[in-house]
Structure formats: structure tokens, C-alpha cells
Amino acid sequence: MKLDLHGLPIHSAWNVFNSKIQDAYYEKLKYVVVVTGQGAIMKEFPVWVSNHPHAKSFSSTPHNPGSFKVFLRK
């Protein structure tokens, strides 16, 4: 699953992130690719992941500093 938050207002992006990560967890996906862009959302992103109960960790994707893989809990 790929989630593109680039260009959204930060609060809207946070709401979409929370909802889609929860959906992906219940679909038993292992990870979600999240595109944040390189602005304010990217700066907030580590906090969003660490505070979400279904997100385990994240890593940046190669060749794109505004894109991340969010790994989900089992």
C-alpha cells in the first residue's frame, strides 16, 4: 500500500496517516510506503510513527528522502 501525504495540510495528513495505518494493520500488511515530501510533514513524521499503536518502525526509502516504509506490528 502506498500513501501520498505530500501537499496536504499537516493536520489532514496526520488524520489520513492514522486512518490508513490502522486499515493496513487490519489488512495484515507488513508495511506501508508513505510519501511525506520534504517539508513540515517529514519533520513531524517520526513522532507520528512512534505514537501510533500499530506502527513498529520506519526507514527511509532509497533515492527519495521524502518517502518512508512504515513497518507494522503483527
Task: Please tell me about this protein's structure.
It is a single chain. With 74 residues, the chain is of the alpha+beta class. The chain has one domain (2-72): Ribosomal Protein S8, Chain: A, domain 1. It has two helices and four strands. It has helices spanning 10-26, 40-51; strands spanning 2-4, 31-35, 55-61, 64-72. Strands 1-2-4-3 form a four-stranded mixed sheet, with helices on one face. β1, α1 (10-26) and β2 form a beta-alpha-beta unit. The radius of gyration is 11 Å and the shape is globular. It starts with a strand and ends with a strand. The model has no long low-confidence stretch (mean pLDDT 96).
Overall mean confidence score, pLDDT: 96
Strand order of the largest sheet: 1-2-4-3
* Total helical elements: 2
Sheet-strand content, in percent, reads: 25-35%
Question: What is the helical fraction, as a range of percent?
Answer: 25-40%
Query: The biggest beta sheet, please?
Result: 4 strands, mixed
Distance N terminus to C terminus?
16 Å
The CATH topology, please? Ribosomal Protein S8, Chain: A, domain 1
Evaluate the radius of gyration. 11 Å
- Beta strands, count: 4
Structural class: alpha+beta
Uncertain runs with pLDDT below 50, 5 residues or more?
none
Integer tally of domains: 1
The appropriate CATH architecture is 2-Layer Sandwich
Q: What is the molecular shape?
A: globular
Topology pattern, helix = H, strand = E: EHEHEE
CATH class group: Alpha Beta
